[in-house]
Write a structure and sequence with these properties.
single chain; mainly alpha; rod-shaped; binds zinc ion; zinc ion binding; nucleic acid binding; ZCCHC10; Zinc knuckle domain-containing protein; Znf_CCHC_sf
Length: 109
Amino acid sequence: MWTRGPRQLTNNDRASPNTRCQRCLKLGHHTYQCTNPRPYVPRPSRTKQLALGGGVGGRDKPSVEVPEEFKSSASGMGIADKILKAKEEERRRAEEKRKEKERQSRKRR
Ligand SMILES: [Zn+2]
């Protein structure tokens, strides 16, 4: 092999077939010689963090976890309607209970 020659140092600069690029993780070239775009970005993008309701910089995760219901119903009808209905129903039930109590107390008196 010619690598045994006196100019072995130049081999350092050359990318051997075993040289793995740390950027695109492909063989055959050095990282600083890489011309390929990164195939995979391990970090979530900044826009995604903002979309999750961050707004405050420097935090990795939003303090409040978004329930699955919220995520899935983003395009459909608002979950707010459901919550409002539920609360309304709850209020109605509480009122009914109160009226019932009133009736009972009236009966007793
Ligand atoms: Zn590369």
